[in-house]
Amino acid sequence: MSGHGDPIPMMSQRGPALCGEAHVPGDKSISHRSLILGAMAVGETMIEGLLEGQDVLDTAKAMRAFGAEVTDHGQGRWSVHGVGVGGFAEPAGVIDCGNSGTGVRLIMGAMATTPITVTFTGDASLCSRPMGRVTDPLALFGAKAEGREGGRLPMTITGAKEPMPVRYTVPVPSAQVKSAVLLAGLGAPGQTVVIEQEATRDHTERMLAGFGAEITVEESDEGRVITLTGQPELRPQHIVVPRDPSSAAFPVCAALIAEGSDVLVPNIGLNPTRAGLFETLREMGADLTYENPREEGGEPVADLRAKFSPDMKGIEVPPARAASMIDEYPVLSVVAAFAQGPTVMRGVKELRVKESDRIDAMAQGLRAAGVEVEEGEDWWIVHGRGHGNVPGGATAESRLDHRIAMSFLVMGLATTEPMRVDDGGPIATSFPVFEPLMTGLGARVARA
Ligand SMILES: O=C(O)C1=C[C@@H](OP(=O)(O)O)[C@@H](O)[C@H](O)C1
Ligand SMILES: C=C(OP(=O)(O)O)C(=O)O
């Protein structure tokens, strides 16, 4: 089982207004998919702006273990020489996906219709997350999985020798499950159909079309019906990875709560399946604008300008929006603490099976910092105290969860007393330049 080395305690405190430009790294979801689909194409895919976070580096390493040639050309430029659909070789060792749910679940899908046997593992966080949601549909293709009780890693999967195409309705709103089934469908003859009742991020569908697969999406009474024709020859692509809205969330939210701030976060992908946080913040009264809106590589993109917003109000976040901001609830709960009145978040059970139980991790840290939080299995309410009234002065546990660590460090920029996190190490999984980027804006964030 992999680990993260020694804990890196960190702290943050109030200081000068944040100002300047925050150039956040490439999108994590799109970076994983670029490497995996690049490895399944025939020929050389070029990727620009790849996120060089640990999660994505672990996926790059895995693609090499399956026989693809993956080369780092420096400054975010990478190439992948793919082996074609069905061309994965059996890796010599265990595939260690570290902290990454996206990495392990998508790779399981990508190998499940090739007759090879692969053992997967990860860190303590990943080994506690449910994998049955992926191995159940992969079994319908003919893949066999053996793991720990409850469908946990480490787990060994033997891919189907004669895969069957599948029709599958995803039982939880999960882009990882949807994507695993679609990637497995690439190796099966005929049409694989995936139905999702709630729309989740659609990067896999968009990218499969870009690589030349035959894929259609229809809205029906059942939900979004995605039909993929298997066994295509995928054509290599030139991919420019947009900047990650989930990383942009941190400097944006910091600027909203830190007195006097005015921060520009340029070139952020605003795919509607990802942009729910920004919509929510605007409904709360945040001074957040989209400048220079445009299309790039088929995706809506804008420069986000966030200014200090002392008069935000708590709102009820529409549950239908949950999938489009699922990774942003931790940092939203921090902003909610500085708003007036309650922010109600419902339909968010999935937060309990991320890198940590994110409702519990945030509720405990917020309470320790003087903020009242109520919670149930699939909902929570943060009772905002208003700007200038949030005590802080607590040490929060990051629980091997990058988003928890970054959220509490953002919080400390506006609490009366500093905030500390016991381990900032996990931040490197998704946002390795978080600390210099934030200090570059003037934020007092440091190793403690
Ligand atoms: O497909 C993806 O790239 C992701 C899907 C989401 O997970 P679920 O599919 O578990 O909702 C999200 O939380 C994760 O950070 C990235
Ligand atoms: C949930 C996340 O990632 P993953 O599921 O890939 O570990 C995340 O980045 O917030």
TrEMBL record:
Pathway(s) where this gene product acts: Metabolic intermediate biosynthesis; chorismate biosynthesis; chorismate from D-erythrose 4-phosphate and phosphoenolpyruvate: step 6/7
EC number: 2.5.1.19
Locations listed in the record: Cytoplasm
Residues that bind 3-phosphoshikimate: 28-29, 33, 174, 176, 327, 354
UniProt-listed GO biological process terms: amino acid biosynthetic process; aromatic amino acid family biosynthetic process; chorismate biosynthetic process
One Pfam family from the record: EPSP_synthase
Keyword tags: Amino-acid biosynthesis, Aromatic amino acid biosynthesis, Cytoplasm, Transferase
MF terms in GO: 3-phosphoshikimate 1-carboxyvinyltransferase activity
NCBIfam families assigned: aroA
Protein name, per record: 3-phosphoshikimate 1-carboxyvinyltransferase
Organism name: Limimaricola litoreus
GN (gene name): aroA
